[in-house]
């Protein structure tokens, strides 16, 4: 350690540990790099050769940024950090595919109280593996030590990604038509939203994350850290299937805001959908947590996905083929509702969300057992 590094370490910032973390993660990050990535790991800026975009008639760039919220508190509590990276990639990249865009590259940011190289490497390895699975180059990142601001075992993660879609292939509300079919795709679990409520419920019952749950077949921490499903690669393959060209009109990633609001924001104004609760059975983790908290499943629809991770609004004529293609790609898919544009009273509907003046959605009926 140099004298300067030693002086800096006295303030709580360990640059040597940071360098070791980079070495531990380097091979995983490099596996996400194709010939488009220039300069490798460690540069001031990640470089991506955009000459492939010359083949587009009108390339539109899509960008997204996000984190994973308070789910990181559970990873920290049970000292398990190898899945939170997938959560981050899913929250960022699966927003990009919603407009039909192919992700190109991503960067990450980790703020921590103290750099523990093995822990940072676990996080970034998870990010890199998920980037590799979604065809996204991890071109750069930053790990920042914030002693005195964050506890020694505290950290937070965030990321940003850029993708591209041909302008005339962009998915958008204007493509949605009366009679379109709404297909739901299964979630792997809670994904990365609603964890403040989860943590509150468990704290109220004095349940620790290391406590075993017979209902979930694992400790609470392990069950809750089930990583967010990755939809990008299978969705892109279905979107690129020439036999299904134009069949998918919009996609909706079910994240913060819940089931109805996220679907409403991708529908055109005046369009409405009633989602049939009977079309699926919420996963055991949702039922168990709802019971612990004394809540009905219906009251949690704006906090948790309850088993739906993504919606596709598709042409009615091609809905069976799209559903079959998604299922063949490993995405459990089912019919959840039908789009209508007739006039009606929207009392009880969610209308738009996140500043979008979109369509209207409500859930009806009772969940399947």
From TrEMBL:
* Pathway in which this enzyme or protein is active: Purine metabolism; IMP biosynthesis via de novo pathway; 5-amino-1-(5-phospho-D-ribosyl)imidazole from N(2)-formyl-N(1)-(5-phospho-D-ribosyl)glycinamide: step 2/2
Q: Where does it live in the cell? A: Cytoplasm
Where does the protein principally reside? cytoplasm
Pfam families documented for this protein = AIRS, AIRS_C
What this protein catalyses is:
2-formamido-N(1)-(5-O-phospho-beta-D-ribosyl)acetamidine + ATP = 5-amino-1-(5-phospho-beta-D-ribosyl)imidazole + ADP + phosphate + H(+)
Which InterPro entries has this protein been placed in? Answer: PurM-like_C_dom (IPR010918), PurM-like_C_sf (IPR036676), PurM-like_N (IPR016188), PurM-like_N_sf (IPR036921), PurM_cligase (IPR004733)
GO-annotated molecular function: ATP binding; phosphoribosylamine-glycine ligase activity; phosphoribosylformylglycinamidine cyclo-ligase activity
Q: Where is the PurM-like N-terminal domain?
A: 60-165
Keywords noted in UniProt: ATP-binding, Cytoplasm, Ligase, Nucleotide-binding, Purine biosynthesis
- Where in the numbering of this chain does the PurM-like C-terminal domain appear? 177-344
Q: Cross-referenced SUPFAM superfamilies, in alphabetical order?
A: PurM C-terminal domain-like (SSF56042), PurM N-terminal domain-like (SSF55326)
Question: Which BP terms from GO are recorded?
Answer: 'de novo' IMP biosynthetic process; adenine biosynthetic process
Gene3D superfamilies listed in its UniProt record: PurM-like C-terminal domain (3.90.650.10), PurM-like, N-terminal domain (3.30.1330.10)
A single cellular component GO annotation = cytosol
Its EC number(s): 6.3.3.1
Q: Which family does it belong to?
A: Belongs to the AIR synthase family.
User: What name does the UniProt record give this protein?
Assistant: Phosphoribosylformylglycinamidine cyclo-ligase
Gene responsible for this protein: purM
């Amino acid at each position: 350690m140099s004298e300067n590094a030693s002086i800096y370490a006295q303030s709580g910032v360990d640059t040597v540990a940071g360098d070791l973390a980079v070495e531990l993660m380097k091979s995983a990050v490099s596996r996400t790099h194709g010939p488009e990535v220039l300069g490798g790991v460690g540069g001031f800026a990640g470089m991506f050769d955009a000459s492939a975009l010359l083949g587009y008639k009108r390339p539109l760039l899509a960008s997204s940024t996000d984190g994973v919220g308070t789910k990181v508190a559970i990873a920290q509590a049970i000292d398990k950090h190898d899945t939170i990276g997938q959560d981050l990639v899913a929250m960022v990249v699966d927003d990009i595919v919603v407009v039909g865009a192919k992700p190109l590259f991503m960067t990450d940011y980790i703020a921590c109280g103290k750099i523990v190289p093995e822990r940072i490497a676990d996080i970034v390895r998870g990010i890199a593996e998920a980037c590799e699975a979604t065809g996204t180059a991890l071109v750069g990142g930053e790990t920042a030590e914030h002693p005195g601001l964050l506890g020694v075992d505290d950290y937070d993660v965030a990321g940003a990604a850029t993708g591209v879609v041909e302008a005339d292939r962009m998915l958008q509300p204007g493509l949605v038509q009366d009679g379109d079919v709404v297909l739901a795709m299964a979630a792997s679990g809670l994904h990365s939203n609603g964890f403040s409520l989860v943590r509150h419920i468990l704290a109220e019952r004095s349940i620790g994350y290391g406590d075993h749950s017979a209902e979930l077949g694992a400790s609470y921490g392990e069950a809750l850290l089930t990583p967010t499903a990755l939809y990008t690669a299978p969705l892109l393959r279905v979107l690129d299937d020439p036999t299904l060209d134009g069949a998918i009109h919009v996609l909706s990633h079910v994240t913060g805001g819940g089931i109805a609001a996220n679907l409403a924001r991708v529908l055109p104004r005046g369009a409405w959908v009633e989602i049939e609760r009977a079309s699926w059975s919420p996963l055991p983790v949702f039922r168990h947590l709802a019971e612990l908290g004394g809540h009905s499943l219906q009251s949690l629809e704006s906090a948790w996905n309850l088993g739906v991770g993504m919606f596709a609004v598709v042409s009615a004529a091609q809905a069976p083929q799209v559903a079959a293609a998604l299922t063949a790609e490993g995405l459990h898919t089912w019919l959840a509702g039908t789009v209508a544009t007739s006039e009606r009273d929207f009392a009880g509907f969610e209308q738009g969300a996140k500043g979008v003046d979109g369509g209207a959605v409500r859930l009806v009926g009772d969940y399947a057992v």
